Amino acid sequence: MTAVPLAAPRRAPRRRKALALTAAAVLPLLLALTGPLLAPHSLDAPVTVPFAAPGAGALLGGDQLGRDVLSRVLHGGTLLVLGALLVAVVTTGVAALVGCVAALRPALGRAVERGADVAILLPPVLGILLIALAWPGGGRWAVIAAAITLGVPYAVRVVAASASPLATAGYAEAALARGESTSYVALREILPNLRATVLTLFGLRFVEAVYVISMAGFLQIGPQPPASDWSLMVRENAPGILLNPWAVLAPSIAIALLATTVSLVTHTLSPDTAKAVTRA
Question: Is the pTM of this model over 0.85?
Answer without folding.
Answer: no
